[in-house]
From TrEMBL:
<feature type="compositionally biased region" description="Pro residues">
    <location>
        <begin position="20"/>
        <end position="29"/>
    </location>
</feature>
<dbReference type="InterPro" id="IPR053924">
    <property type="entry name" value="RecX_HTH_2nd"/>
</dbReference>
<dbReference type="GO" id="GO:0005737">
    <property type="term" value="C:cytoplasm"/>
</dbReference>
<protein>
    <recommendedName>
        <fullName>Regulatory protein RecX</fullName>
    </recommendedName>
</protein>
<feature type="domain" description="RecX second three-helical">
    <location>
        <begin position="90"/>
        <end position="131"/>
    </location>
</feature>
<dbReference type="GO" id="GO:0006282">
    <property type="term" value="P:regulation of DNA repair"/>
</dbReference>
<feature type="domain" description="RecX first three-helical">
    <location>
        <begin position="44"/>
        <end position="82"/>
    </location>
</feature>
<comment type="function">
    <text>Modulates RecA activity.</text>
</comment>
<dbReference type="InterPro" id="IPR053925">
    <property type="entry name" value="RecX_HTH_3rd"/>
</dbReference>
<feature type="domain" description="RecX third three-helical">
    <location>
        <begin position="138"/>
        <end position="183"/>
    </location>
</feature>
<dbReference type="Pfam" id="PF02631">
    <property type="entry name" value="RecX_HTH2"/>
</dbReference>
<keyword id="KW-0963">Cytoplasm</keyword>
<dbReference type="InterPro" id="IPR053926">
    <property type="entry name" value="RecX_HTH_1st"/>
</dbReference>
<dbReference type="Pfam" id="PF21982">
    <property type="entry name" value="RecX_HTH1"/>
</dbReference>
<dbReference type="InterPro" id="IPR036388">
    <property type="entry name" value="WH-like_DNA-bd_sf"/>
</dbReference>
<comment type="similarity">
    <text>Belongs to the RecX family.</text>
</comment>
<feature type="region of interest" description="Disordered">
    <location>
        <begin position="1"/>
        <end position="40"/>
    </location>
</feature>
Length: 199
């Protein structure tokens, strides 16, 4: 049994069925036209600049990206050091910027922000300095905004369930339990509801 030359290739099969000749083979790759391989340092520099376009990134994020792209460690370290020297990579500034966007935007408390910064590779001491700049009044205000917004969706549940859900919401956002209970109790009272004492 002879096998058809077009078996497995749909385009060739359709052409054969319609009585047309098979498509021409693609021309061979001209290795000289491609030129020499790109310089690894130039490639790494372009990766870093692309990553930094539009948003700041931590040194660890950039290092991880270079590693995934196969950039040798010595080149990555040298370039990241140079980018730090000229201020393009700055973990202090990154931490402050991250907090400024996540704290009011997502309503995250210090503990949740610290975990995010740790995942981003920010040194604990650098993160602590940036987190110490958060005004406790701003943190409490963010908690109140979260509770008020969620409270509007809890009109059909009793006060005990509402309290548990609101305190749970704040816990997931990293707020300490003392602050969470105080804010929830006050916001429920402001809505003519009563927060029961939870164990």
């Amino acid at each position: 049994m002879t096998s058809d030359p077009w078996t497995g290739d749909v385009e060739v099969g359709v052409r054969a069925w319609m009585g047309e000749p098979p498509p021409a083979a693609p021309p061979p790759v001209d290795e000289q036209a491609l030129g020499p391989d790109a310089d690894p340092e130039s490639v790494a520099r372009k990766i870093l600049l692309d990553q930094l376009t539009g948003q700041a990134r931590s040194r660890k994020e950039l290092s991880d990206k270079l590693g995934k792209k196969g950039v040798p460690d010595e080149i990555a370290t040298r370039l990241l050091d140079r980018f730090e020297e000229v201020g393009l990579v700055d973990d202090d500034a990154f931490a402050r910027s991250w907090i400024a966007s996540r704290q009011p935007g997502k309503g995250l408390a210090r503990r949740a922000l610290a975990q995010e910064l740790r995942r981003k590779g920010i040194d604990d001491e650098v993160a602590k300095e940036a987190l110490d700049e958060i005004d406790p009044a701003d943190e409490e205000s963010a908690a109140r905004v979260l509770v008020r917004k969620k409270l509007r969706t809890l009109s059909r549940v009793d006060d005990t369930v509402a309290t548990r859900r609101l305190v749970g919401l704040l816990a997931r956002k990293g707020y300490p339990s003392g602050l969470s209970f105080a804010v929830v109790r006050e916001e429920l009272a402001a809505s003519d509801r009563d927060a029961p004492d939870l164990p």
